[in-house]
Structures are given as structure tokens and as C-alpha cells.
Amino acid sequence: MKILLLEDEPKVISIIKRGLEGEGYDFAVAMDGYTALKLAGLHSFDLIILDIMVPGINGLEVCGNIRRFDPNVPILILSALNSTEDVVKGLDIHADDYMTKPFKIAELGARMRSLIRRSNRHKIEDNTISLADLKMDLVTMEVTRNNKIISLTSTEFKLLEHLMMNQKRVLPRLDILEAVWGYEFNIGTNVVDVYINYLRKKIDKDFEPKLIHTVVGVGYVMKAAV
Fold this sequence. Notes:
Blueprint: E1 2-6, H1 10-19, E2 26-30, H2 33-42, E3 47-50, H3 59-69, E4 75-79, H4 84-92, E5 97-100, H5 105-122, E6 128-131, E7 134-137, E8 143-145, E9 148-150, H6 154-165, E10 171-172, H7 173-180, H8 191-203, E11 212-215, E12 219-222
Parallel strand pairs: 1-2, 1-3, 3-4, 4-5
Antiparallel strand pairs: 6-7, 7-8, 8-9, 10-12, 11-12
Helix pairs in contact: 2-3, 6-8
């Protein structure tokens, strides 16, 4: 997942990158507003994080300019400006979320995941999610790959849906466990690995490219790249 981060404090940049290194994010960092706006125009990002008080044009101006050419990319403002008026200004200029400094890295990570999930839902067309030649209909629960119907159990379908809704994002095993089986499930279980293996046999074994990839020591990622 590609993230654009507008932040002029090296310490904050380091905290964010180190704190979220296990999430599989690829950060592009801009330390002034003009650079951030240029990067946003040249590249496609899954999420944009903007500080407000930065050199050049400020984060609110960057947000407003980005919205003129990309109304859909999730934008999160991360700023030390914490008054109600500041938050209202940020949201009124069409940021999707506003978080104040100082912040907890766990909360920032959770808000980022929420915005990305919401954005992925908006990308669904006609209740169908696709990746390469794999398609799943969320209404009929029909799954096909290369136009071949694949039979899945309800749990396999739920697992595949979670992976597909978070394409290109590294999903830790605990994240998958909570999303598919619920918080009350025993976190010491290997049920995630077992069901990933079931899915691989059905949607990857006889097809190319492989879509489910293991990230050693972390979890899994759904993507078409080898």
C-alpha cells in the first residue's frame, strides 16, 4: 500500500515509519506542501496523511488542491492544531479524518486501516470484487477464476472476502483472525494458516499468477504480483 506523508518533523516521520513498518506500507515523504502536491499529482496513493503547518503551502491548501483532481483518495489530517474550529476546517475541505498531535501510533494505524477499508469498499462495482482473473460476487457468493466456478465454504468465502477487500495490504494473522473468526477465538490457534492453505488449493494451485502470498513472520497479502 502506497502512503503519501506530508510532515516536516524528522522525528515524527521516523515514529510513523518505524511504528507501522509491520503493516507493509510504502511511504513517500514530502517535507513541504509543494512537494506533496507534486507527488500526489504524479503518483497513485492508497492514503494521504497531511500535517497542516508545513513549509510552502499548508496542509489544508494541499488537501483542497488534491480534491480538485482526486475526489476519492482517503486523506487523513494529522496536526497539532486541535481546536474544534481547526477540525471543522479540515473536514470541511474534504479530509476524511482529522487526528491531533500528540498521537498514539496504534490509533493512527487503526484509523489508516479504517480509511483504506472504506476506500476499498467504494471500489466494488456491481457487488463484485476482482483481482486478476479472480472474481467474487458478494450477493450470490459465486467465486470464479478464469471463468471457472470455485466452490468455497462460508468460512473460506469470508476469509477470501477479507483478503480481497484489503488487496496489496499485508494482513497480520491476528488481524485476519479477528476479522473472520472474532475476538473471542483462541489467538494461539493455527486456524488462519489452515484456511489459507485451503484457499490456496482452490484458487491458486491450478492458476497463474499466484494471488495469496506469505509475508514471513507477519501474515499474508493478496496481490497479483509474483
